[in-house]
Amino acid sequence: MIDLHTHSSASDGTTPPDALVREAHEAGLDVIALTDHDTTDGWEPAAKALPDGLRLVRGSEISCSRDGISLHLLAYLFDPEDDALSRQLQVLRDSRVGRAERMVSLLAADGHPVSWEQVERLADGTVGRPHVARALMESGLVGSIEEAFSQDWIGTRGRYWAGKHELDVLDAMRLVHAAGGVTVFAHPGADARGRTVGDDVIEEMAAEGLTGLEVDHVDHTAETRDRLRSKASALGLVVTGSSDYHGRNKQVRLGAHTTAPAVLDVISGRATGVEVL
Ligand code: AMP
Ligand code: ZN
Ligand code: FE
Ligand code: FE
Fold this sequence. Notes:
The chain is of the alpha/beta class.
């Protein structure tokens, strides 16, 4: 069982990286990719705690955009010490702090009792909207994370939403590839969460050396999966499946969707940054 997209408390998951690999082993996974938003900080603790019988693909999910539309790029097995890439990841993380502070200010200005200290306490690494959502829950303003992500609160372009810095996806791909990494387009058709890019962007990404499309994902309908599978096959891209696990911050379990072993071989075969552990 191969799950190529998970989050730990190094970003907006709720399980620390060392506990996550143990949990993955207990859940029966053979391979897990740790892909925290805009960071590699979870790599070392996850690697140190890696149980026998579980392999670790080190990765990150990078905040990108194209033509003003946000999208997520999964980057695997790149050199974490690459200067240009690590500098850009730092810029993305820094911008997330100012942006979360902005959302807190907007909420406070409307009299909602949420503080930056609360968000800071909930975030252990890369700050994300799920931390603000948890703060909203703690303060009794919403009943669930899902509700916090509605247009009345911090859903994309919602009342108290603020945008963050994103890398142009083609620039991000060049950086990842130069650092020896491999790229997969994360949940390309997750349109319930905001606008998604068209086929033209998938084609541009394929021309830039994209390896695959994440097709089997909780946010994709059956029709979307069929469409993306055909697109992948037409463009010579591999197809991945993964849980996008976030612990208690999202209702999906580890291994909810999986990737074929031959696809992992393609990904690891193309990478020159770091190895699968
Ligand atoms: P951010 O990257 O800070 O803008 O936050 C986006 C993160 O929030 C993504 O990683 C999603 O996993 C999570 N997210 C987005 N929409 C929802 C939702 N409706 N319910 C729970 N989590 C969500
Ligand atoms: Zn997330
Ligand atoms: Fe994502
Ligand atoms: Fe994710």
